[in-house]
Amino acid sequence: MRHKDISGTLGRVALYLFIFISVSACADDLFDAKIGDKVLPNQHYNNANDVWSSFNGIVLLLQEIMPNHILIDGLLSDQMQPTGSANADLVNLYNHTFSSGNSYINGAPYYKVIISANDVLSNIDAVVEKDPINYDSITNLTVRRALITYRSWAYLNYVRLYGSATIIPERLVSIEDAANMEVVDKENMLFRLIDDLTSVLHDIGSSQAEIYIKNAINTRALLGEIYLELNNYEMAEKYLREACDSFGRIFYKVDRTYSRDNFASIFRNPDGAEREVMVSVPFSFEDGQKNPLETFFNPAFYFSLEPTNNIVHAFNNQERLNDTILGDNFRGMGVSIDSVPGSNNRLYISKYSLESGAVPFSSDIIIYRAGDIHLMLAEAYNRLGESNIALTIMNEGIRQLSPRPAALRTWASNEGIRGRVFLKPRVVPDDVSDIVTHVENLIMEERALEFAFEGRRWFDLMRVARRRNDPAYLADMVASKYADPATAERVTQRLMIPQNWYLPAF
Amino acid sequence: MSYRRTLILVIGLFLLFNSKGVTQEANLVTVSGQVLESGTRMPLKQVFIFCVKSGQSTQSDEEGRFELGVGDLHSSLFFNLPGYTRRRVNPLGVDHIVVYLVDERFSSFDDVISLPHEAKIAREIIKPASSVPGNMLNTFPGTPSDGLIQGMLPGIHVVRHSGFPGHKAWLNIGGLSSIYAKQQPLLIIDGMIHEYNYADQGVISGFSFNPWDVIDGADIADITVMKGSLASWGSNGSNGIIYINTEKRGETSSEISFTSYGGIGLIPKKMSMLNADQFRSLLTEQLTQAGKNMADYSWLQDDKSHPDYFRYSNNTDWQGELFKPSAIQKYHIFLKGGDDIATYNISTGYLKHGSIYENASYSRYNLRINGLINITDKFSVIPNVKLSLSDSYLASMGADDYKNPITSSLLKSPLTAPMARDPETGIFLNEIDDTDEFNVSNPTAIVREGTGTNRNYHFLSSIDFRYSFSPRLMISSLAGISYNNAREDLFLPDHGLVNQEFADNSRHDLVYDFRSTQNHSTIIYNNTFGRGILEAVAGLRYMKNRYKFNEGNDLNTPSDDFRNLGQGAKHQYLRTTLGDDRELIWGSLYSSLHYSIDHKYYVAASFSRDGNSNIHENNRYNNYPSLGLAWRISSEPFLSGLRKMGDLKIRTSYGLSGNMHSHAYDYSKLFYVGRRLGRTSVLVRDAVPNSNLTIEKKSTLNAGFDFVTASMRSDFSFNYYFSEIRNLLINQQLPAFGFENYFDNGGVLNINAFEMAYNGRTHFSGLTLTYGISVSRYVSKVQNLHFIDEQKTAIVHDVNNIPDIRVQYITSINHGLNLFYGFQTDGKYDSDAEAQNITGPGGIPMRAGDIRFVDRNNDNVINALDMTVIGDPNPDFYGGMVASLIYKNIEIGALFTYSYGNDIFNYVRFKTESMRTFANQTSQTINRYGTNEYNADVPRASLGDPTGNTVFSDRWIEDGSYIRLKKLSVSYAIPSGLRPYRESVVFLTASNLLTFTRYKGYDPEGYYENSPFQMGIDYGQIPQVRTFMIGVRLSI
Predict the structure, then answer these.
(1) A19–chain B Cβ distance below 8 A for any pair
(2) Is the ipTM of this structure higher than 0.90?
(3) Per residue in B473-499, pLDDT tens?
(4) CA atoms of B595 and B124, how far apart (whole Å)
(5) Does the beta-carbon distance from B573 to A285 stay under 8 Å?
(6) Rounded CA gap, B800 and B205, in Å?
(7) Is some CB atom of chain B closer than 8 A to the CB atom of A91?
(8) B727 φ, ψ to 5°?
(9) How far is A110 from chain B (nearest CA, A)?
(10) Minimal Cα distance from A283: which residue of B?
(11) pLDDT in tens, B644-661
């Protein structure tokens, strides 16, 4: 029996140690462990930086939406067609033979924006108390407005594509919150969105001046677009015009800056083109954010989509202002479309390859730009009976209009959409009786050129066909892209039923 | 160390019985009998026989006969003779007994089995467990540690990932039990949980380091596999436990032994590929199809003036160029010694195994120190250290064949040569030939310039404090750390390799760091109440794991001479880096009771409550009960006929356990992830969390029996398991909510499994033949899957690491997990007229010579609606057979492993028989459609395969059944006259000598990754090859 005296002590120590460990194991925070690079709610929404990083997180989600949005728009409408290397899903979209299994038909990213915007909305009020110096209540209202605008933008585009949408509850932190969600049709959704947007506009007072937030969608532009969708031209005119006036006389006007410069500079350098680009989704290949459109369009990559003859002819048949040569050389060849190097007359969509020499796959995608709002405004003026103003906006610009209407008095520097790219004004021949329809057709033709491959055309066709209660307007436009008469006939038949315009939801 | 605890327990029992026995000395009954050797049935003399109840003891005489006074005819008698396994026998009311003792070289049901924190006689076990004793482990030297249980034990499914020596194995007990959570059993080495699943991450694709190699196989004393749901291990217990004990048992107090072997590994059996002429004919056909101007390829027509003539006028056997025999060597020293106060047990070793091509090898240095320090009579400390450093050199495996030398060697055109040739003279130059016209990497370039390295530093150490308050009560606290640090790198050169998207050459580095700190504390109480024996254990387990990794990928260095991170192109967008840092904390309180009466009726119950950091706090704490019953039916007086035949015990147990190992549980928490928007950092919400997500729970009902013949020469065990996994994790992919990762507990899975093992031994005129066979089977069946998306009926999983074929697994109700999902085929179309009505998987009409796919819905269009289950990677049966023959000093051992009824997707054959690229193909394709003697199995050559002949179909699924003579070993013990060695053994071992299979690839055994979503896919991993080794084992 060695060390007998200490063995009792050791035994007690061992027993106490054992009990101590057993008891300490019951402490509750014992199980707080790192789960990789993830930020938990208690670490987030504590200060202004948290708010901004979450707000910009929503912009990031648009990187997921926009390329797909543009492909679907181009293929369903009459602007893009598949090449031999296109996969079946792209071909099916082009032929209007798609089914819900089509990998490009994915409404999920729109809902991601909605859920994320709701998440930020439900957490930021608390930040005003936590970090009042950097994040005051006025800033909070501005951020709220920007968030609700993003959410509304997502709902609007979803409902235009799919025909109806599910209303996501503001606090979706578990699947139970998602039970019994309300599904609303397009028209009801538009009214809801108007309510949402109008109320946030009023939160900060009715001043037209916007508080500038980088990457935010202009609330009034969106409201104007929704009213236009609803054929409420007065309200559309008001909000679209106010959107263009958001930052005074210079910003958001199609103006001389671009008459001297090349139109294409908008796409080359959106940061420097802030005046014209109201909001865009940035991509940066260097930072791991690749704009995937190049893989579809660029002949150096898969080259699975190419421009249709419709859009190519439309560009090539434009009459220039000062000479007799045909062709839109500011927006057409060399800008929106270009020849495949080393081929005979094979064309590719070059709009997203404009940053030649720079890093590929980094072109930004524009969500709203001044030209878009201008032509929507023209559409509203036309329907309000002011076809002359509408044509002026489209042709030579408000600066040429005399006298200028009171509402447009500050638009002295406004260039026309066609004027700045040196194309001849489009006019209404004397023998036309339905001037409004004729001007509207001209505006639609102009929009097709101005926003070629920018994700507008399909929505424009649906809006006008619905407004005129004339599905044939859309059906004929789309059918005209097919060389095969049988396909053209089948697609016409299909598109004569407006319900077939919508994509299948899940 | 478990052995020591057993010893303490046994001594305790002796004392206990002893004290009671004295009081009953008055009425002694005499038992007489004979002790015989189990095999030869010869009498055994000088066997020490002891009755604890009466305190009487005696020895057997020359005839093996004895007489002993016992308390009553139900008192246990102990029989002890050095060299034989100790036995306890209950006379069961009879006054004359015959007792057989088993030579300790052979396994028996009286072996002590090590279990975590306890040790038991195999005969007394209630829950299903089986064990490989150390003496069996020595039969087949040179086996990787985890290979030691392959084929040796029933119920555990072991599949080597590849034939590379340092590569880990797929381990599974009793069938796939989950879709998204861990399938692998818990590995416990000397009381420490040895986590090993983190090591799957790597830059050398298809390779994962084998964490078992922290110990050398020669240091393993015994391995026990515990099956069923192990409630006392709670959320760690649903995949069973493999328990490794490195503390050697033995009588000798000091020992030095030295083992060394050396040998050679052969090259695999080559696949039959097209030779230059045959390839030329196929190529001409394809170039014509591609509409190429044949004048550009005049070298095909023997035009010597063409500058590429010499480059493309070879007839290279690429497999022959690649495969090289390899060298094998190993040295291992074992030291043991000490006194009453302290004993030590040290071993150290070095091994190096080459692999089948140049620059591929695995080397390892091991050190192990076990000790025991008796500080006082009651207090002891047991330190335990294991250290290993290992280096693996190999190229990538897997579907990216541009960097996999094995598939490249099959696909590389025989017209090309490994080394470049002078275009004028045709003289071979001292420069590796660059990539060719056919866009296949040069395998010589891959293995000479592009091999990867994995350096692994492993440290597993613990210290166990034990204090015995009395023989009945003991506490133990084991604290330890498991640490693993690895660096893995891979350089893919520009020269000779096919370029990838933006990469000419590329460098990949991975560093990871894993540490696990643990404490396992237990209180053990033993007591005897009349005829009942109680053992009660209560304890606490705590484990905290942290895993970090950093990975960097750089590309386009100025030239292949620059091969480090940071040398890559200036544009940072070409670099990628990634990393993770995560923890897992698990704490468990548990208790168990084991009560037996007369060694006839047994009841065991356990209960544990644990918590872990993976699960949302709503469901963090869980309770796990278990109950087990056993009845030694042969001890019943009314079955005395049975008793004469042997010992039969029937058992049943029920247990509940959980599976906390899954990243899916992350989605029970609301969280945000960091991303970049342009140059700004942003936070994005990643999921709709499911805070109700709860742990997968597995309940298992087990029933079985163990039968040992009275002579102890053969035994048979059978186990049946019915498991139900509730709360099965399912990825719901809720598109409507925009988030891909929504997990819920939406499924129920049943597994029916059984296993049986038979071991026998025969002795005749000096020869001893032992043999064993095990058969195991599991059938998983999904009982229920609940999808939120009502249109969904099955989980279809895309295998995403295969660039050129879409491979899917399906999991649906009433079927097993992860079955191959694709198209069925039914021969070929012989005429265009017949084929044109059918739109093929490529979306265009089929042609004559195309595959006739089964049009299941008869719509003349072959599309996703025609897909069905085309194979099951799970085997119907698996197991092994082991046999050994001992004659005097010679022992011959053979181990067969087999698997029956598992299907394999032969990706290699897809690549080498699809005829859709300019790559070389197997000689099967000589008889393609369109040639004179075409074979009904081979369609036409179709460049680019527009009609879709090569889609994932049963064409590529093969029966992977095999039976393999895994080991054959002959050893000769030099007669002990040869001093100073106490034992000196020379042995010869051959591995993989014979394989019987219909599988067409190199090796029917091999899973690419340790994931159920890679089961049964053969990407052309390094196959297991025949090896021959000669070695010596010397002991002093």
Answers:
(1) no
(2) no
(3) 999 999 999 999 999 999 999 999 988
(4) 11
(5) yes
(6) 13
(7) yes
(8) 60, 30
(9) 7
(10) B678
(11) 788 899 999 999 999 999
